[in-house]
Every structure is written in C-alpha cells, then in structure tokens.
C-alpha cells in the first residue's frame, strides 16, 4: 500500500535563496548596472560561436551561482541591441524609467487577466488611455496590451473577420472562418506580419490582394486603384489594411482619403501603425497620420519607438463588442464579460504579464514632450545619415529618407551576395548593425533609428563603418567580396 505524501521542507537551496533574497537582488542590480554602463563598449552585434550546451544541473547552484555561470558563459555573447548604434529592424532600447518599470513588473508578478484583487488592470486601462491620446485616437477606440505588432495585427484582423461575419449574417467565432467563404483583403504594401495573421486566422495568405502603389518611388497605395478594386467586389464586404509607415521607406497611405471611401464601399479599415504611428508626436510630421482616428482597428508597437523593453505592443479597435465575441473565455470560474470586460476576454492570452507598467513609467517620467524629443532626434539623425550616404560614391539611397529609416544599397552591382557581405562587414566591426531588405526588386539595407540613446556622434560612427565596409566590397576597390 502506497503511503500518503505529506508536504516536505523547502529545498535547501531554494530556502537559502529566500533567506538571502535582498542580497541576491542587489547582486543582480550590480551586474545589470555594469552591463548597462558598458553598453557603449559592447559589440553592437555578436555573430561569434555560442557556448556548447551543458547538461541540466541535478541539484542546482543557487541564484548567485546561476548569475555567475550566466556571466561567464552567456553574457559575453549578448549583443548591444539596446544601444545607440543597433539600427537593425526597428528596435528601440529601454529608457531608464521603462527599465525600472520592467524590473518592478517581475517583482510584483501581477497576472492582469482580470481586475479582481489587484489595481494592475486599472493601471493598464490608464496607460491605454494615455497612448490613445498620444496617437490622436478618440474615446471610441478601446485598447489592450499584447506582445508585439504581429499579435496586434492578428487581433485587429480577427475582429475584422468577425465584422465580415456580421455583415454576411454568420458568426465566425461559432461557425469558423469557412462560414465566410473567400475573403478579400486589400493593401498596397502590407507587412509580412499581416500575411502571417491571415494564415493564423484561417483566411489564408493568398487572400491578400496587393493594390498598386503610387508612382515615383512610393510604397503608399494608389487610392484610386483601391477604389477600383473595391468597386469590383460588387458590394461584398472586405478588409483594407492601410499603412502608417512602411518597413522599407516609412511611406504613409492617405488614411483620410481611404476612410472617405467608406461612404461608397463596405470595408473594415485596419491600420498598421507599428512604428509610423509615432509621427503623431511631432507637429512637423503629425500630418502623416491624419485620419488614423477613422480606423476600425489600429496596431502600434511599443518596444520600437516608445523604447520600452521587449515585449510590448497595443491594439485599438472601435468594436470592442466584436472583440469580446472573438476572444471571450467561456469558463464559469473566470466569469462572463461585463460592460468593461477583463483583458482575458480581449486578447489571445489568458495569462497576461503587466506589460503596461514599463510604458506607464516611461510616459509618467518623460511625458509627451520627452517622447516627442526622441522621435524628432531620431528623424533628424536618419536624415543626417542619408545625406552622408549620398556623398559616398560606393553607396546610394534607394528611396528618400521620409522619417526614421534609411534605405540604401551599393552603387554598383548590388547583388544579394555583395549586399549581404556589406551587412556582415558592418556587423563584424562591432560598431553598428543594419538589416538586409529588398526594395523595388533591388537588394538593399535598412538603418532604422528608434533608440532613445542615439546621438549625432553615434550616427557619424555608423557612417564611418558603412563607408569603410562599402570600400571592401565595392568593385571599384578591387576587392569585390
């Protein structure tokens, strides 16, 4: 007969860590402070060999031992992606206030699935309200935090899918996407996360119909061609994905003109404003997002230009009722969604980290004006790098610098091998990091400015390594690769 198992004493190493917790947190603080203080000297990218895997410890080494092992084996290979010369993708850093908020997020370890027993959900609602104001959206838009732009786009398009069902007299959340039949999704320059979302939602990647863009080196949709595509649907409802800042050249669709098409055609307007939405903070560039408030759903990524730690984004919609219909969790112990539904009824996640706290800290610490300064400085530095590139015979711009991304390539023979060799040479220098792309059929590179630390001196360092690397791969130098 098996004996009953009674509660045993806490594992001795765990108990020891608990007794020394303040000391351990101080050790982590000192280690982190040293890493942040040395960020400028850390290689911006670290493409070297990674440590070989080790077996799982049987007894464990305690928190201090784990910190030591991490410092020895893994920390040296971490990149300086939080620093000022990491210009790959669109990657912000973490402002001092947002880092403070992120540490406290882990310390408090709040689950913001629901509002019961904690004020954490109310803090998220307050933060969403601040962000809504920051981006010029009205009270009709409700929002919630998610992990990033991909999930934000997915949530927005999931609500759009339910709206299509409403228009066609079916409930997609009950009957499935097949009840809709073929869905038409129209966009000029949709981000890859949109097709990923269409795949996840059962709409299908191939249902994205690319509408021609404006002539003259543009990525913005031709609104007249969009109107013609909608006209050809013969009244069938559709989804239009508009862009507030394209990935390669940060081009903006005419959101107001697209929204005006709703007077004639039946469509859901989703706006991907992952980082371009931050143009709203600058009086000089806010016109680029005029009409954002007319969107039915909006995606904004916060670990980009708000400079909060990974992972954080926000999604907005005018149709919270449809959002609840899609995402509500049917379980007696969780309760039914009310007029102000808990967040677990609004996003794919039941368990939710308090992602709002780093954003709350940064917005409280620096306000609208502090974040406006970051945006405007990044734009000015992108323009500076663009100007420098035009003076280098081995390089050329692929598009005008419209906001914070510089899209460029080799002046001669910009093959994939040669352009990727240029990117690799930049990364190997440890001075900077840029990422490859293809624009208008040409292999190129993108330098995206979104880090709060980046200065003019950093930009000059980036330019210097770009110029040197271009000389090493240019046919003119006699060293073609």
Automatic annotation (TrEMBL):
Cofactor(s) this protein requires: pyridoxal 5'-phosphate
Which GO biological-process labels does this protein carry? carboxylic acid metabolic process
Q: Where is this region: Disordered?
A: 38-63
Q: Which GO molecular function annotation, any one, does this entry have?
A: pyridoxal phosphate binding
Supply the alphabetized keyword list. Answer: Aminotransferase, Decarboxylase, Lyase, Pyridoxal phosphate, Transferase
Residues with the modification N6-(pyridoxal phosphate)lysine, per the entry, are: 304
Report the sequence similarity comment from the record. Belongs to the group II decarboxylase family.
Write down what this protein is called.
Aspartate aminotransferase family protein
